[in-house]
Write a structure and sequence with these properties.
- It is a single chain.
- By secondary structure, the chain is an all-beta fold.
- Helices cover about 0% and strands about 60% of the residues.
- The protein has a single domain, classed as Immunoglobulin-like (Sandwich).
- The strands form two sheets. Strands 3-9-8-5-6 form a five-stranded mixed sheet, with no helix packed on it. The protein has a four-stranded antiparallel sheet with strand order 1-2-4-7, with no helix packed on it.
């Protein structure tokens, strides 16, 4: 099941959900931007520690795919558990919960 969330002029469609509607952290996430802009998508653990920044750059308008492979910035595999995905654009911020199960 996909979920579309409007963040100002930016629209993010989050995919990779399990049967309970929870975003699976190792899934594929689709981002559709109505206009070009700076996009940051960061993964945090339940303690609020940054695990990895998936993107922190200017993206052109259009559809984009972002995938987290379950690996932390250090290169080590992230442990199974709950993670939070924070999408930030110039217009707003949206945070979603995900589960990484190995």
């Amino acid at each position: 099941m996909n979920e579309t969330k409007t963040v100002g002029e930016h629209v993010a469609t989050w995919d990779g959900r399990d049967e309970n509607g929870i975003a699976v952290a190792s899934g594929i996430y689709f981002l559709r931007l109505e206009s070009a802009g700076h996009v940051t998508l960061t993964v945090y653990d339940v303690t609020g520690r940054r695990v990895r920044t998936l993107t922190d750059t200017v993206w052109p308008a259009g559809e984009h795919v972002i995938r987290w492979d379950g690996v932390a910035t250090s290169g080590a595999p992230a442990p199974s558990g709950v993670y939070f995905f924070r999408l930030k654009t110039a217009i707003g911020i949206d945070t979603r919960r995900g589960v990484l199960a190995k």
